[in-house]
Design the sequence.
């Protein structure tokens, strides 16, 4: 019966055909597009072209002839509509960590009387590491990282907070912050905001311009399917283009890079955010992957992953073997990203056994099973089959002993 | 006659066969491998494998199954013998500019009583921009950039110099510093050294360990042929592994990145130099390109590009049309990298016209024609043909008027 429901949902899915645009192995169900998006087939043609016809044929001339020199900005312009940004505010270079370093340092310069970076204890760790590194460099007198629980964020927006740095969607449990509310709260207290959109760009509707967000970063290789280690994107709101300076200067951020002046003069707008030469092969893959988003509204993507995850939850309910899976993600689909996380004492072993059965999900220490619902890639039939496989795995002999012991504890 | 000499030199060249390993367009002569090395054919197979068999088949599992997680270090280990480094001291990530930022900040922390970064006025500009950015961030009280002429470097090594940052080979004129002598001089005055090997790694014999160099960076896409924007490498001498900390922290530099702790604990050795996720497609291309160096001694490469450039100079002498080309590179081949630079009032127009004639070289503002001799790629017959084409270009009608006017001035 559940499979009939899956077939019905698939038949109503406007995005169903999109999965044909990916190279997906036949024998697996991929519930980890939130870690690494799968390969869009069109990327193969693009890389073939970049390698053979550009690097292999026009060599150094490709920087102009094939637009490599503008590729970071071109990619940024393709990402802009996905995150609710008008043109000229997004550029693609380096990693999220490095871009956050640049932004955090800039925010402290923009707010010279304030020394505090406010974030969340359960923010994605690398974001916190970046702040810690900057704190070590500048000294705690000049830069203090304060980490609080999510519920304490607004209360913690003291007059010393220069910038509120948060991930939109939590990597562990998928809980989504309300960017609009938190941005307004920060601005009311005189602080800037940096939003990390790694787990929301491409799956949640975003309106960065409308919300007045100051800065944002995001990931090229998760829901944007740009390939392993694809460069990160950065959003710099127009309102900061004339007062913004970032400290990791390099020739690609120079106003006239080919003059080879010995003094740095920053380029205008987002261009000064660049540092060194970007990795063109990786950047071209992301550029091509973004072509899949051209005719899609992110609201469609959100609708689909909400349906996928709700169907997953329905199916879980139908299997008593899965009673021990505890949902730790928000139950309200509007309050989460495109993932569900479940705690289970045997989460690690279950994740491995599920993988043996052909379903790729993710384990997050210490006890979370993380299931991603990349809406361009997945169909409902796969979700049905994945839960069947999960029930089989969890109900199997391997886990019988631990199930028994948990029930003993309960009684 | 000169072509007979070229044939003779080609027949004596042990490296002649190596050019077959590159995808070189038939109709051009490429004298710009010092800007972007050409495409090693084997990179096509590697990228095909990374795209289809790894990303496209094993998806997220490729990080372990196909060693992506260790690729930055693997690439570093392949570069180590090329720069005279024992294992465990080289890693490949980010751009040169970003790596210099990390190193400069680290050097200032290693020498807390010293505030000065000493460099050369004519250093590659991006290296100077990085220092200027750090100076802006830390304030001039904590970080001062001093730029002097090459001849003043040793004299300028005052007690306030924390680090001497230099390019081994000058990008304009190809002049090579003596790393051994300058490193010793810096150490005698209590300063650290950072060498930028962008224009020497792969063409000049290097002995970083033997010379006691503290830190170095270098480029993946010039003589190492790693592809456009290939990640940079960084060398951190073993002696600094226990006291070194770099400030741009990220999860890839954490001791236990997959524990997702909220506090940063640096990895041991060079691993802590990593920041974010590296661009795997670009990194894999470089990894594969380095396989061309496995059976080659860098001394062979130096011998060949010295012969190539000397043959170029001989040929230039034989053409009176080229009398106005003024060599600005050191005349002694032992004192330069794998390039020759010539000044000429019409350098820009000549470079463009030479390109029309099928020879790709480089123009450097305001008046330099820069000719690179990538020793794996070029043969002597090409050098002969390139000079013939240059003589034809410079002797042509287009340049007749300016030649005439220059001669008027002389008389």
Sequence:
């Amino acid at each position: 019966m559940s499979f009939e429901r899956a077939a019905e949902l698939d038949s109503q899915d406007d995005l169903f055909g999109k999965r044909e645009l990916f190279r997906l192995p036949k024998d697996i169900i991929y519930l980890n597009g939130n870690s690494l998006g799968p390969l869009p087939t069109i990327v193969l043609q693009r890389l073939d072209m970049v390698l053979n016809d550009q690097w292999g044929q026009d060599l150094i001339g490709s920087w102009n002839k094939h637009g490599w020199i503008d590729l970071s900005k071109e990619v940024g312009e393709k990402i802009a509509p996905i995150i609710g940004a008008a043109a000229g505010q997004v550029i693609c270079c380096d990693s999220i960590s490095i871009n956050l370093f640049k932004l955090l340092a800039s925010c402290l310069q923009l707010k010279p009387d304030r020394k505090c970076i406010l974030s969340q204890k359960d923010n994605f760790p690398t974001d916190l590491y970046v702040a810690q590194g900057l704190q070590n460099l500048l000294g705690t007198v000049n830069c203090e990282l304060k980490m609080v629980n999510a519920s304490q964020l607004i209360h913690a927006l003291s007059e010393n907070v220069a910038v509120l740095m948060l991930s939109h969607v939590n990597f562990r449990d998928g809980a989504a912050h309300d960017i609009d509310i938190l941005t307004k709260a920060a601005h009311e207290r005189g602080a800037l905001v940096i939003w990390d959109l790694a787990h929301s760009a491409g799956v949640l509707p975003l309106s960065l311009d409308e919300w007045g967000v100051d800065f944002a970063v995001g990931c090229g290789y998760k829901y944007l399917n740009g390939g392993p280690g694809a460069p990160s994107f950065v959003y710099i709101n127009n309102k900061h283009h004339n007062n913004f300076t970032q400290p990791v200067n390099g020739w690609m951020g120079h106003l006239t890079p080919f003059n080879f002046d010995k003094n740095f003069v920053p380029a205008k707008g987002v261009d000064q955010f660049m540092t060194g030469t970007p990795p063109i092969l990786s950047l071209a893959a992301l550029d091509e992957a973004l072509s899949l988003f051209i005719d899609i509204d992110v609201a469609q993507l959100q609708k689909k992953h909400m349906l996928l995850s709700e169907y997953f939850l329905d199916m879980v309910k139908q299997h008593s073997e899965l009673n021990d899976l505890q949902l730790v993600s928000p139950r309200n689909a509007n309050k989460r990203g495109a993932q569900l996380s479940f705690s289970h004492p045997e989460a690690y072993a279950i994740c491995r056994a599920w993988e043996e059965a052909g379903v790729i999900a993710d384990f997050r220490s210490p006890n979370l099973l993380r299931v991603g619902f990349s809406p361009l890639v997945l169909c409902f039939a796969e979700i049905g089959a994945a839960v069947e496989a999960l029930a089989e795995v969890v109900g199997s002999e391997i886990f019988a002993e631990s199930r028994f012991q948990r029930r003993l504890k309960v009684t």
